[in-house]
Amino acid sequence: MPPETVVVVGASLAGGTAVATLREEGFGGRIVLIGDEPELPYQRPPLSKTYLRGDAARDTLLVRPDDWWSAHDVETRLGTRVRALDPVARTVTIADGEPIAFDRCLIATGVRNRALSVPGADLEGIVHLRTIADADRIRSAAATADRAVVVGMGFIGAEVAASLRLLGIEVTVIEVFETAMYKVLGARIGDVLASIHRDRGVTMRFNDTVARFEGPGRVERVVTRDGDTIECGMVVVGVGTEPATDAVGDLALAADGGIAVNARLETDVPGVFAAGDVASHAHPVLGRVRVEHFDNAIKMGAHAARAMLGSPDAFDDPHWFWSDQYDEHLQMGGVAVADDMVVRGSLEDRSFCAFFLDDAGVLRASVALNRPKECRRSLPLIRAGASPDRAALADPDVDLRTLGA
Amino acid sequence: MGDYVTIGRADEVVEGDAAAFEVEGNQVGVARVEGALYAFGDICTHQGCTLMPGGDLDGTELTCGCHGSMFSIQTGEVLDGPATQPIEVYPAREVDGEIQIEV
User: Fold this and answer.
1) How far is B46 from chain A (nearest CA, A)?
2) A148 and A186 assigned to the same domain
3) Which of A210, A237, A264 is the last residue of a domain?
4) What is the complex's ipTM, to 2 decimals?
């Protein structure tokens, strides 16, 4: 029986895309979209880049135009939290106490930023980045600051450092690992990213961390564990995230902290699905993975919508994501960066696609800098679990599409 | 019917590939696929990246090199990725070794 009411918890990219897909697929029933921010679904990638630098207007972030939601008969409950999800009564209860009954429910609550618990972490001028409001706070701090400290050099830290440099601010990054973006890219490619930032004048302090923040109400300096003091007018903290699962009741969680869903994105409660950053999905080739990236939020949101309407298909996207820093374009496919790396192109020239193979020679991931085509063409190979010839991978004259599965 | 304008030499666009041309201040991409020419607005509707060079042409499907939006260069429609608005497409022809598009 087709569902009558779909409740989507999380007015996020995944949640918003799911709603749009439901209508595009012809679903004519009731849709309730609940979000804790006061905003309609929007895209977050520009928040650390073009929006942060003032190069992109707010309305360019929207997943669908302002008037799309009412025109498509979507009930939005924004600026409110979900208090409880009852899988037996099949209701979602929001902050004002209203229970909303559902046939299908999608959890797309995303992740929240991990806090840095050190003395002074609540001083003014120390900001995280997740929402439009956060980005506005950083922009306003950057308008008066000459010097910034960025804590953490993952995606957010690296992109914010680049944007602040482009705004003319002196930037020091403090990163606990040995190089930039180490956890996702590994040391060799991380070093390439670090060299790009160094050329742009960013000071990077690796293998160090924040001991405390100091200042009279507003942050004025950062003291590191190694005992150095860095003067600054603002701090941006990007030290990782955790899945936002507090409102999901007793749904089973995976070891990675996300909501465990099967290959068609359904949780252990029939009719309740999860998608996007919060969802840990059973990938037919990659195994259980939870991916916190833009492209996945779109594809998984759309897939969950079709699954809620009865599609039996497995979600087998190979995963693909990017990071733009200065005028460099970094792109990645797959999820696990293994030790065995085959490079096409040149790390030194900052033009390469690196392929990561597991112990059995199966292509698991690719990372490209300024070589988008090769990264994209590796995706079908990753999806198929292919074991391509190493020499062919390294040869720029070989079209990856000819390597087959 | 608009007028056809010459935008470049035909040998600048090889089979299975696309190239970008400047046309009256706008950037237009032209692809040659199985002998046929396809002209399209070369700016991705997602975040304004140039589609060519940098994009990946597979048949008549063109994927933006920045963020993966995929367009049909036959119809301009979005086939995949974050873009929601189509790109422009223009009739194109080859005359005396030159590429012309209708504007």
Assistant:
1) 9
2) yes
3) A237
4) 0.76
- Find the CB nearest A373 among B56, B81, B82: B56
Residue A121's domain comprises 115-237
Q: Are residues A255 and A107 in the same domain?
A: yes
**Predicted TM-score (pTM) of this structure:** 0.91
B84–A372 C-beta distance less than 8 A: no
Confirm or reject contact between B15 and chain A (CB < 8 A).
no
Which of the 8 DSSP states describes residue B50? Answer: B
pLDDT in tens, A236-295: 999 999 999 988 888 999 999 999 999 999 999 999 999 999 999 999 988 999 999 999
Given an 8 Å threshold on Cβ–Cβ distance, is A373 in contact with B58? no
Q: Which residues of A touch B54 (CB under 8 A)?
A: 372-373
Question: Looking at CA atoms only, how far is residue B67 from chain A in angstroms?
Answer: 7
- Which among A50, A322, A377 has the least Cβ separation from residue B56? A377
Q: What is the pLDDT of residues A346-391, one digit of tens each?
A: 999 999 999 999 999 999 999 999 998 899 999 999 999 999 999 9
Task: Name the domain count of chain A.
Answer: 3
A46 to B81: CB separation less than 8 angstroms, yes or no: no
All residues of chain A having their beta carbon less than 8 Å from the beta carbon of residue B56 are: 372-373, 376-377
Do A84 and A97 belong to one domain? yes
Examine the domain organization and report whether A101 and A167 are in the same domain: no
Provide the residue range defining the domain that includes B57.
4-102
Indicate whether A366 belongs to any domain.
yes
